[in-house]
Design brief:
single chain; 263 residues; alpha/beta; eight-stranded mixed β-sheet; 8 strands; 11% strand; elongated; NADP; NAD(P)-binding domain-containing protein; membrane; Pyrroline-COOH_reductase; NAD(P)-bd_dom_sf
Length: 263
Amino acid sequence: MTDKPLSSMTIGILGVGYFASYFIAGLRKGGFKGQILLSPRNAQTANKLAQTHNCSIAVTNQDVIDHTDLVVVSVKPEHLQELLTGLSFKDDQIVVSAVAGISVENHHKTGPLPQTLIRMIPVCCIEAGEGVVPIYPAHKIVEDLARFTGAPVTFNTEEEFDLSLAASCMNGWLYEFFGSMTQWLENKGLPSETARTLVLHNVRGATGYALLKENEDLTSITNDIATEGTFTLKGLEVLRKHQGIIAWDKALDEVHANLIRDN
């Protein structure tokens, strides 16, 4: 493992797609000023990131590995083997994988990776410097790097990490939920900007209040608010009747079952 301080390390990105875009934007927004070297394959995205976030573009993928201390691999699972074919990593290199659903063991079976392989979950909110960054196994340098983009959370086992991956999928589901609520308000006559503001800041306020009440069970917060005779309880009863809450559990079950099978 490299003994360089994070500030003097060069970060390489193999697979310049959505996660790389979130991650690099989050790093720069969070104040990371180190060098970032991008793989050249997705030229349009790489050029945009280079111009917007002060990155360099390598000639080849091997060039990324040869000139960096920490490499972030961010491709779809089905493309990992193709990406790694013919590449040669340095023994002391740190590799951070944002490839979903592939265990550490199966990463090593897929290609010639160095010993230090850390899994990280790509979540779009890191572009805004918000949310958590799940990491397995714990690694100080990777955690310090992730801290530029959000709050790193480490896990003791890969099974725990996979649960966090399932939970992270909620990030994508929530936007459709927000959009549905916003559309309802618009259909009732609110201007779209006002409807969007109401929905997003109500949600932000709810999460902020829950974080403030860190020692209180989350369900008990609902029970304290949705008391007999309130409009909140009337709406909650409708959601429960139509399994609006249970449906989220079922979605998590489905994702988790697929993760276990694919790993």
